[in-house]
Sequence to fold (59 residues):
Amino acid sequence: MNLAYMRFRCLCTMFLVVMALRDKIKRHLKLPHGYVMEYKPHDASLRDNSSYRNTWLRG
Fold:
């Protein structure tokens, strides 16, 4: 296996895990089928200060 294939396979697996987790959360919270949930990696959240926990970074 080459590196590009291994990286692609890892990204696909991560995507499937995130989607399964999203579906379980929606089912547990009894959210409507069309409810939109977004997953963002922690480092991306820190970069754009989008988390309510990161408000202290704005000064």
